[in-house]
Amino acid sequence: MTVEQARALLLRCAQPADAVEVELVDAFGRRLAASVQTEEPIPHFRRSGMDGYAVRTSDLANVNAAAPVELEVIEHIPCGVEPQYMITVGKAARIMTGAMVPEGADAVIMQEMTELVESEGRSIVRIQKKVASGTNITPIGEEAREGTLVLEAGERIGAGHTAILASLGYSRVPVYRKPKVAILSTGSELLQLSDPMQMGKIRNSNAYMLSAQIIAAGGQPQLIGQIPDDYPRAEQMLYDLLSSDADLIVTTGGVSVGDYDIMADFFLRWEGTTLFNKIAMRPGSPTTAGSWRNKLLFGLSGNPSACFVGFELFVRPVIQQLQGAVVDHAQTVTCHLAVDYKKVNAYPRYVRGYWYSNGGEHYAKPVGRDKSSAILSLKEANCLIVIPPTKTGFPAGDIVQIIPLDGAMSK
Amino acid sequence: MTVEQARALLLRCAQPADAVEVELVDAFGRRLAASVQTEEPIPHFRRSGMDGYAVRTSDLANVNAAAPVELEVIEHIPCGVEPQYMITVGKAARIMTGAMVPEGADAVIMQEMTELVESEGRSIVRIQKKVASGTNITPIGEEAREGTLVLEAGERIGAGHTAILASLGYSRVPVYRKPKVAILSTGSELLQLSDPMQMGKIRNSNAYMLSAQIIAAGGQPQLIGQIPDDYPRAEQMLYDLLSSDADLIVTTGGVSVGDYDIMADFFLRWEGTTLFNKIAMRPGSPTTAGSWRNKLLFGLSGNPSACFVGFELFVRPVIQQLQGAVVDHAQTVTCHLAVDYKKVNAYPRYVRGYWYSNGGEHYAKPVGRDKSSAILSLKEANCLIVIPPTKTGFPAGDIVQIIPLDGAMSK
């Protein structure tokens, strides 16, 4: 089964979680559970784009440096105040940037192009230059008319979305609940973090790595712990979790078909539907997934890099879709190979890479040793480079697809 | 003052906040407050890269398909278990991926290249092919020697960092405290989110937008509210905040030199040091900042886009440095202009843009109307395009610098 087929199968099983309402200040990074329309045009009044004077351009029809026009300033209009007077022939109003343009006026002339004169207790503005009708006035609805769809359900709420929601009066926002993702580890070689190191053993890093990946994808990780080596107890634990309020269950390790691979055994015997247990890809070919009563169970590899890649390719899109995201592609970007890729691949390979730009061109190069057991190079990677099957490798400069990782291109 | 000069001035004033310790599961996205070294080599034992048999390659020196060698399997070595026996002449051990290679063995031969025979109660593995010494064994320290610096203070903790920290036994992690950033708004035109709309007024969107930008930069926003229009009360409020536990104070609005610009007045009269009150840039030229007893106060523009740009260029790097980040450049990326840029700029312009790749090339194009009052286009933007001063504009295809925004290139 190809990566694309496996992902399509999974996404057919993932239904968005229910919606909850949160304060706008807590909505950053969440996904909208409803679309948002404008109730009023934006702007909803004629807005001045400058500090200056609201004028009738017909009053300035014959103005020039030799023949300036003088208009009486009848009002000062700060932001947030509705003008009291209409501008009639020979009149003007002082106006601030963002303030409401009074009726009768059809342009705002920049303060710097005017001269203010006090004469017999009256304020007079002297103007020596014409302006076109409409100058420095943002018309009603220029940005959006009433009833415009401005945000769609499933969009991730960034700073710009937050500004829009605030300006439309959303102090609370409907968002999808964060999917709860249970994390289980297998492997008698795993030490807890606080255990002293022992010969032949390693500390459980995959569970914590997955917890970070789950947070980055918008989920809520639940570190459950270790699956017992004893099959009946392991089975009981898995069914208990499948029946729990977790939206997804992710296990790491025990999926290859070897002597001690308890997840491979479980997927052979369970009551759920195994969607796939082998993917045409490296690393992570034994990545397994299945569905039990509409709940997805993932068996990711125990090798750190294979586990990482399996999550990014299969679990991340599911978590996104559970939050209403429209996931219809692998979210790839194209760029150029920075170095020759010389390996022979019978299957597509997802290589940890570093993506950068130089002189307008974008490049990606593999980082660290491309071993699925390698752990240090995981932190250098800001993308996965997708290397198609090849008998010859690819020369530097060839176009490749990459999958950007969390925080790519920013530090 | 140029953007670069202003940023350099600010970064000289920003000292990292103190360190706190958090659980590893809560460390994602925080910045390390100490560097991390390996205490043991990685791996700390000779690790098998395959399911197979640990052998002495000298035993296979003359092997071929016609003359296979048979070795006695003296032990099964699962992951996490220290081997009991040394491999001597004529012996082998069954071994799992990730398990510890026993003494005496110098290669692991893949299971698929062998045949297991049970004979007179003994397990015999039959091998028909040579392997080179070292095959499928990861030597001690291959990834890192003991005492290797693997993570540096100030690095943002991503999923890869989390895996490394876990594997080194960090159940708790020293990180920099999240800087507290107080947000204040000015402007009598501002309605609260729950207020009904009124003619001439707008809702306070900048404060919420800034709160999202602060979270994205790693800070902790504090929405303080509105600065009073009354100068003595405004001044009191600002000094109270400057004396509070906020690490930074950001205000929006009131910085141009107009009739009602209270922040401009404050920066003229205050006891602090004004670092700059005019920047050679658009939008956001009136962006102001100063320092009072080592605390920075920012006066950002009240225009949504100018406020957004002012934050990204000046406040974000300060928040990052307060968390120990090494900020020594504008974190720009280069790509190609997708369309002609026809405007004349006397000053560098930071244009909201959309950045994308197509056929290996990366492009950026302006989004929405390039008006600093525009709000809807803020959500389309995934970068700021840096347009240098120009009398002629720039043709499509020219190389430009862009500043990626939070979530750029991922949805």
List key phrases describing it:
17% helix; Molybdopterin biosynthesis moeA protein, domain 3; Molybdopterin biosynthesis moea protein, domain 2; alpha+beta; six-stranded mixed sheet; 411 residues; 4 domains; homodimer
Describe the structure.
- The structure is a homodimer of 411-residue chains.
- With 411 residues, chain A is α+β, with helices and mostly antiparallel strands.
- Chain A folds into four domains: 3-16 and 178-322, 3-Layer(aba) Sandwich (Molybdenum Cofactor Biosythetic Enzyme, Chain A); 19-42 and 142-176, Molybdopterin biosynthesis moea protein, domain 2 (Alpha-Beta Complex), CATH 3.90.105.10; 47-138, Molybdopterin biosynthesis moeA protein, domain 3 (Beta Complex), CATH 2.170.190.11; 333-404, MoeA, C-terminal, domain IV (Beta-clip, Beta Barrel), CATH 2.40.340.10.
- In chain A, 17% of the residues lie in helices and 30% in strands.
- Chain A is built from six helices and 25 strands.
- In chain A, the strands form seven sheets. A six-stranded mixed beta sheet of chain A has the order 7-4-6-5-9-8, with no helix packed on it. Chain A has a six-stranded mixed beta sheet with strand order 16-13-17-20-19-18, with helices on both faces.
- In chain A, strand 8 and strand 9 form a beta hairpin.
- In chain A, helix 1 (3-13) crosses helix 6.
- Chain A is elongated and about 100 Å long.
- Chains A and B meet through helix 2, strand 15, helix 3, helix 6 and strand 21 of A and helix 2, strand 15, helix 3, helix 6 and strand 21 of B.
